[in-house]
Write a structure and sequence with these properties.
Strand order of the largest sheet: 19-20-22-23-24-21
Shape: flat
CATH class of the largest domain: Alpha Beta
Number of strands: 24
Oligomer: single chain
């Protein structure tokens, strides 16, 4: 039987997109406590089909698909530009395909405005009206208002009219930054993107016998299965190693490995790969916040995802990318490498010397780079010991020399030395786990 928490989640899931959600109203409609309703709404927000919008409230939204993660909803735009909604609140859940800056004549402007776009413009009422008629939302800069006619039209068409006190250039920069961040997130594959869902996952019950395990092995061609209780909560896992020496009539609960390691759906595949290699796990049950099974992740699924990720174009740059873009790699005759680069203003602290975090990043990235020359795979730092560090001034040129001390199929150890004007200014010992692709 479903719990109250699950009933509320199902109720929220069936609400039309755009519906405002109230803790008090749900508690009243479903005859549950407000605390239970609140926890369920927060869970729905984690799962991505509810969003809390400042000065608007909690709204049922359309859950984003992975391929559309680079698109923003108008509700997110409101938060990004610290704006307030003048009209068309019912359309805040919709996504925008592009934004247009209205800094031209009206006729020319409308050639670029299309459905599902966002027009960024000042207090030009006619532009507001025409944009809505073209199916586009409007963001008014400078803190200006619009006419009652435009607000009524926005409500009718369910297209938001948003006002922000920032100027046009600042607003455009803020939205660009948000889209850029979303592009970086798009590159990070999550467990929920690749897991085998519950509908395709064979599971065993605690009351099943080893004979059932044998039947499942023949039917599904697998030897590892999660074990669940009557509420579908994961209580164990069974592999061929567990059933050795037991009679076919033995109950699964007696032979299973209890309290198995599990993961959540909103965890990166890279961190799960690290966990599976470190713990020697071939099958990882995926659960929700109540420990209820939602699917499984196999080591094969992880390897395929990491291979796919490597083939994708780089959509956005993270801080390590930006730092290492300033360094050139030079190959040495003995098969090693040295990385040379300048200390830029962005790399320094308030004293004008290279920040310790930046120095550590340079050491780690250079160590991982030299390990990739020996093993193809993803490098996950296990242990970083910086045991020598001296101040390095702004605009100084540094040379980073990683030296592989030991390498195996799963681990590599590298000593990294950093020099400025032939003087040692930093040294570290880095151990990294190698996740083969």
């Amino acid at each position: 039987m479903a719990t109250k928490h699950e009933l509320i989640l199902d109720y929220i899931d069936r609400l039309p997109v755009g519906t405002k959600i109230s803790v008090r109203q749900i508690a009243k409609d479903l005859e549950v406590s407000e605390g239970t309703a609140y926890r369920a709404i927060k869970e729905a927000e984690v799962q991505g089909y509810v969003s809390t919008i400042e000065r608007v409230g909690t709204v049922r939204i359309e859950k984003k698909q992975k391929e559309n993660i680079e698109r923003l909803t108008f509700a997110e735009v409101v938060n990004i530009v610290d704006g307030h909604v003048l009209g068309g609140r019912a359309g805040l859940h919709k996504t925008l395909n592009k934004f247009v800056i209205g800094a031209m004549k009206l006729e020319a402007m409308m050639r670029y405005v299309e459905a599902d776009s966002l027009l960024i413009v000042g207090n030009r009422y006619q532009a507001h009206k025409l944009s809505l008629q073209h199916g586009a939302a409007v963001l008014i800069t400078g803190g200006f208002d619009t006419s009652d006619e435009v607000k009524q039209l926005a409500d009718k068409l369910e297209l938001p009219i948003i006002s922000s006190s920032y100027d046009t250039f600042t607003v455009a920069a803020m939205i660009n930054r948000a889209i850029y961040d979303q592009l970086i997130k798009k590159e990070i594959i999550m467990v929920e993107d690749i897991l085998k869902p519950l509908s395709e996952t064979p599971v065993l019950r605690t009351t099943d016998t080893i004979a059932t395990w044998h039947a499942y092995t023949e039917r599904y061609g697998e030897a590892r299965f999660p074990v669940v209780d009557e509420l579908m909560k994961v209580v164990g896992i069974v592999t061929s190693r567990d059933i050795i020496g037991h009679e076919p009539t033995a109950v699964i609960e007696r032979v299973m490995t209890k309290n198995p390691i599990t993961t959540l759906a909103r965890v990166s595949v890279a961190s799960c790969a690290h966990l599976m290699v470190w713990e020697g796990i071939e099958l990882l049950p995926v659960v929700d916040n109540t420990k209820k099974l939602v699917g499984v992740l196999s080591r094969q699924d992880v390897i395929k995802a990491l291979q796919y990720m490597q083939k994708q174009p780089q959509m956005g740059e993270t801080f390590p990318n930006l730092i290492m873009n300033r360094f050139q790699e030079e190959k040495l005759g003995d098969g090693g490498s040295v990385f040379c680069g300048d200390v830029t203003p962005q790399m320094t602290n308030h004293l004008g010397t290279i920040a310790s975090g930046v120095m550590t990043t340079i050491m780690v990235e250079s160590a991982c780079s030299v390990l990739r020359q020996h093993r193809k795979g993803d490098m996950v730092p296990e242990n970083i010991m910086v045991y020598f560090l001296k101040p390095v001034q702004l605009e100084s040129q540094i040379q980073v020399k990683p030296r592989v001390l030991d390498i195996s199929r799963r681990f590599g150890k590298v000593e990294v030395s950093v020099y400025h004007s032939d003087q040692l200014v930093g040294q570290a010992m880095i151990t990294a786990q190698i996740i083969e692709r």
